[in-house]
Design goal:
This protein is an alpha/beta fold. It is built from nine helices and 14 strands.
């Protein structure tokens, strides 16, 4: 239990660990203490609060209703304590502390990992844990709700703060090889004569609506040669291999392949709706210097990634 010298905070950490491990033995091993010390910490908390937090027998540990409420508050107490400790120990201008940051898996794999690594190189006192999360519906009660979450869509909770940081632009792409073998579509309905890979995402509700100035077209793929998946790297790989037209990749994901000549935008004059993106966190009275700095850094990194212009297609 290093870094926790205060007995009250130590008891909270023990309680949180027991709830998550569902075991006194595992908790004792994780916190490098005895099972008796774990039991004493829980008993002290229960006596102080006047409620039973855990029901335990020889086989398992279960959390009571009061324990569930206390667990959620205990995590907030631990977070506030860590932020306070970080702030009062930060007597210089260095950024120090720990944070958990989560983002969609494809962004973690291809961009966010570089952002986090670069940030920690610039700020050696910062420790950022990057987590891949693809759930769009999160509340403060969700066990995977981290210190800072990058996600699409808003969560209906007054306890969450949402900062809009821009939009995800979608477009259609195919490989030059595929377009040499198949006539490039001129209007959205022409896609019915092509092999299609569809991105499955809650925001992309089919049939999709395309716009071109004042013109609007609703696309319903009527052919059977279509593949739908929520795995963007897999669809990107299929598109690069010449399998067909992908509908619709985020432009930030396709950009480097367009620049390399491996992908060509399809129907470039037609636009799809843009998906809002948010940074989300729990509302708190106090935020660490690390939190404020890292949040601004991530917003800036996304802006740089999402607003970079796509290259103009080469003339034939």
């Amino acid at each position: 239990m290093r870094d926790i010298s205060n007995r009250i905070m130590r008891d909270w950490v023990v309680f949180i660990t027991v709830v998550e491990a569902r075991s006194f033995t595992t908790t004792a091993r994780k916190l490098h203490c005895s099972i008796a010390a774990v039991s004493k910490s829980i008993s002290r908390l229960e006596e102080t609060l006047g409620v039973i937090l855990l029901s335990r027998n020889a086989h398992k540990v279960d959390i009571t209703a009061a324990g569930q409420v206390t667990y959620l508050r205990a995590k907030e107490i631990r977070q506030s304590w860590q932020e306070l400790s970080s702030e009062i120990s930060n007597r210089d201008d260095c950024i120090r502390g720990k944070m958990r940051f989560s983002a969609p898996s494809v962004l973690c794999e291809l961009a966010a990992c570089h952002w986090v690594f670069d940030y920690m190189c610039r700020n050696p006192g910062a420790e950022i844990q990057l987590l891949s999360r693809d759930r769009t519906e999160l509340t403060v009660a969700s066990p995977e709700f981290d210190d800072l979450v990058l996600k699409s869509g808003m969560s209906d909770s007054p306890e969450l703060v949402h900062q809009p940081i821009g939009n995800v632009r979608f477009a259609l792409y195919a490989s030059p090889e595929y377009l040499r073998k198949h006539q490039a579509p001129d209007i959205p309905d022409d896609l019915n004569h092509h092999r299609i890979m569809k991105v499955a995402h809650p925001f992309l509700r089919y049939p999709l609506t395309f716009t071109r100035g004042a013109d609007t077209a609703e696309l319903t793929i009527a052919n059977t040669t279509s593949l739908a998946s929520n795995n963007l790297p897999a669809l990107l790989k299929m598109t690069l291999s010449g399998a067909g037209v992908c509908l619709a990749l985020p432009d930030w994901l396709a950009r480097q392949h367009v620049q390399a000549g491996a992908l060509t935008p399809v129907l470039p004059d037609w636009q799809l709706p843009e998906m809002p993106l948010w940074l989300v966190w729990r509302s708190r009275d106090n935020y660490s210097k690390l939190f404020h700095d890292f949040r601004k850094y991530i917003a800036g990194q996304w802006k740089a990634l999402s607003t970079a212009p796509l290259p103009e297609p080469d003339g034939e």
